[in-house]
Each structure stands twice: as C-alpha cells, then as structure tokens.
Amino acid sequence: MKKDSAILVLGLLVALMPFLGFPGAWENWFFLGAGLGVAILGYLLRRDIVHGKHCEHFMHGEVNDTFSQNGSNHERKEITQKNNEQYSTQPEL
User: Fold this and answer.
1) Are residues 68 and 51 in the same domain?
2) Do 49 and 79 fall into the same domain?
3) Do residues 52 and 67 share a domain?
4) How far is CA 90 from CA 13, 77, 83, 86, in A?
5) Region Disordered: which residues (predicted)?
6) 93 and 68 in one domain?
7) pTM, whole model, 2 decimals?
8) Residue 65's pLDDT band (boundaries 50, 70, 90)?
C-alpha cells in the first residue's frame, strides 16, 4: 500500500471508530496508534518529496497523461494560428 493510501485508510478508520462499538480503552490505544502512524507516514512522505522521489518519472523523460494533454493542446493552438493566418490574408469583400 502506498503511503498516501495508508494515510487515507487511517483517516477513515479514525472517523468510523466511534461508531464501531469498541470499549473506550481500545479506542484510546487505536487513536494513539493511528496518530503515530499518520505522523510517521507524513514524515516519510515529506522526506520523499524533499529528495525528489515523487518526481523521478519527470527526470527520466517519461510521458504521463498531463504531458500528452498539454501536447495536444499545443497542436490545437498551432492549428488555430494557421487558420487565423489563412483568414487574415484573404481580402475583405
């Protein structure tokens, strides 16, 4: 499980814990563990971001959906510019 997914699952469990009917002492220990888990996962995510591990695919030149979408948008702009040039050179009637 990825770190961000683990944080999401812990958050959902914390939100549902009061409705699950566990004894108060168990809930306290669970909240302690969940809080420590979120803190540790947050630290590990921060460390990955600082060291650039989330940006490795950009460094290796891999293409993702966002890059492809921007590329197609660029092509659309070129077509629009060519159309504008074509109509701007025609004499007005």
Assistant:
1) no
2) no
3) no
4) 67, 20, 11, 7
5) 63-93
6) yes
7) 0.53
8) low
